[in-house]
Design goal:
Length: about 400
Amino acid sequence: MKTTWSILLGLLLPAAPAAVQAQFIYTTNSGAITLYQYTGGGGAVVISNFVNSIGQQSFSFCTSLTSVTIPGSVAGIGDYAFYGCSNLAGLTISSGVAAIGQQVFQGCTNLASVAIPVSATSIGAFAFACCSNLASAAISGGVTNMANQFYGCTNLQSVTIDNGVTTVGVGEFLDFASLASVTIPDSVTSIASNAFAWTGLTRVAIPGSVAAIGDYAFYKCPNLATLTLSNGVASLGQGAFSYCASLTSVTIPNSVTGIGDYAFDFCSDLTGLYFQGNAPAADSTVLFLDTTTNYFLPDTGGWSNTFAGRPAVPWNPLIQTGGSFGVQGTQFGFNIAGTAGIPIVVEACANLASPVWVPLATNTLTGGLFSFSEPLPANSPARFYRIRSP
C-alpha cells in the first residue's frame, strides 16, 4: 500500500545559529522513500540519506535554492527535478546515485561546476542544458554514452571524460567557444559528427580506440594548435579538421587508411602532414587552399610526387658518422643528410631508461644537409640524440 506523508528534513542556512526545519512531501512504497515536492524556504539543502529517490519536478523553479547535497542512498533523480533553479550554485552528487534523468538541472544558470560519480550509469538528454555559467565538468566512466547532456553550456571551459565512456555524441560540444581543454580516454570508440566543432580547444589527443573520427568533428576550431592522432585511428571524416587555422603540423599514424573530403581544407598555417604509413585514400580536396607539404617515410608505399594536390616528398634524415661527427674541441656535433628542404628537430636526453627529450635545434636540410653542434655538457656521463619531425 502506498502512503503519502509530510516530513521534516534539515535545512542548513548560512549564518543560521541552528538547523532550520523545512518541509518535504514524499511517498513511501515498500519502505522506499521518494521526494516529490519541496516546500521549504531554499538556501543550502542537505537531503537525508533515508531518501531513496527524487521525483520528477520536485525542486523545479525553486529559485531560492542555493546548494544541494544528494546522498548516495538516492538511486535516481527524476526528470526536471531541479529544472530552472537559477540560483543553484553548489551541487554535490554522492557516490551511489545511479541515474540522472533528462533536463534535471536545465536552466541552473548559477551552477559553475559538476562532477558525476562513477556510480552513475545514465544521464538523460539535456540534463545540464543551458547552465550558462557552467565552467567545468567531470564525467565518470559509468556513463558510457554522451548525448546532448550539456547543450547550450557555452561557458564550459574544461571537460574531463573518465575511462569507461565510449561515445561522444553528435554535436555534444558544438559551438562551445570557451571550451579550451578536453580529456578523451582510451575507452572512447566513437567521436560523432560535429562533436567538438566551433570550440576553443587548443590541443587534443585522440586515442587509438577511436577508429573513425566523424564528419566535421573538429570543424572551425581556430585555436587548435596541437593535434595528436594515436595509432589505431583508421579514418578521418569529411571536413574533420577544416578551418583549424592554428594547426602547423600533424602526424598521421600508419593505421589511417582514408581521409575524407576537405578534412584539412582552409588550415592556413598547416605547413606539413607527416605520414607514418602507406598513402591513404584521399582526393584533391583534403588540403584545399592550403600550402601544405606531405612527408612520407621512405619504406612506405603508394606515394607519388603529389598527394591531395600538394607536393609529397620522402622524410629521410640520417646522422652521418663520418666527417665532423664527434668531439671537436669543446663541441660535439654531426651532420644530418636527407631530402633537400625537409624540416627536422634535433633532441637530446641524458638517460634512456627514463628519457626527457629536450629540443636543441629546429631547421631544414638546406641543400640536403644540416650541421649540428653543441657545447659538451658539464657533469654528464652520457648524452643521447634523436631526430624527429616538427
